[in-house]
Design a protein that fits this description.
2 domains, Growth Hormone, Chain: A, single chain, mainly alpha, 266 residues
Length: 266
């Protein structure tokens, strides 16, 4: 669970970093006005909400049918978010170019057209951000089931703390590296999240593979140990030939340890 806390702290940091930089890039392309700022923030939050709701609905309905490991889905989601940092500036630039070639007669029509473009630009990428918590909750349920009941609050706290850091640190980075330089930090962190999640997945799979190998060895090379009637007959026969309490205790201990090792392998 500690790994998920770190992942979502960084994820929350990246989300607010993108929000701050995208807002400034959007107003640079479409104009610094209160309505436009409201449109950008609304589309950002709408994307987060739709992504969280959509992913949660899909997991509740089709979660048992999902064959892809949830950690892989989470890793791919973070990779898509990292790609968004590179794509959104170009999408906003193309939107401005498109509006320049359209005859718009009123400010209301301009805001409607620019809002539609900003919606098409931001909502899909922000939906990926919103989907991370439901997907991570499914990953925790599949890999750390005993912690699943508190996974939402755990991830939400990590995400909020990361968002707080993301609301402060990028402002300092913008002064040093500028908007585009600061924006490049996001993909690097999202790539780190992708690699870390895939590493955790490989670790979990390797543990499962080791368990399956142990089980196969136990069942194929120690098949007689699973014949409980035979084992019980042999055990009682051994006890019948032993007179001292110490020897009986030793026999019992050896049998218990053998059964325990077989259960661990299975």
């Amino acid at each position: 669970m500690d790994w998920f806390f770190v992942l979502f702290f960084i994820s929350g940091f990246c989300s607010i970093l993108y929000e701050l930089v995208w807002l400034r890039l959007a107003v640079a392309q479409f104009g610094i006005t209160s309505p436009l700022i409201s449109i950008v923030l609304s589309m950002f939050m709408a994307g987060l909400g739709l992504g969280s709701w959509g992913a949660g609905y899909a997991i509740r309905k089709y979660g048992d049918r999902i064959k892809t490991p949830p950690l892989r889905l989470y890793a791919l989601t973070e990779l898509l978010i990292g790609i968004s940092a590179l794509a959104v500036p170009y999408q906003l630039f193309w939107g401005r170019g498109l509006l320049e070639h359209i005859s718009i007669s009123s400010s209301a029509a301009y805001y409607l057209a620019s809002g539609a473009w900003i919606c098409l630009t931001l909502v899909p990428w922000c939906a990926c951000m919103g989907a991370t918590i439901p997907v991570a909750m499914l990953a925790i349920k599949k890999s750390v089931y005993r912690e699943a009941h508190r996974s939402f609050s755990f991830l939400y706290v990590a995400n909020v703390l990361g968002a707080v850091a993301g609301a402060i640190v990028p402002l300092l980075l913008i002064e040093v590296y500028g908007f585009r330089g600061t924006l490049r930090i996001g993909p690097l962190l999202n790539s780190l999240l992708f690699v870390t999640a895939m590493g955790l997945l490989i670790g979990l799979l390797s543990e499962a593979v080791r368990g399956q190998v142990k089980q196969a060895i136990a069942r194929h090379f120690y098949r007689h140990k699973y014949d409980y009637r035979r084992e019980w007959t042999e055990f009682t026969g051994k006890l019948a030939s032993v007179l001292s309490i110490q020897a009986i205790a030793a026999r019992l201990l050896a049998t218990v340890e053998e059964v325990k090792s077989l259960k661990q392998a299975a």
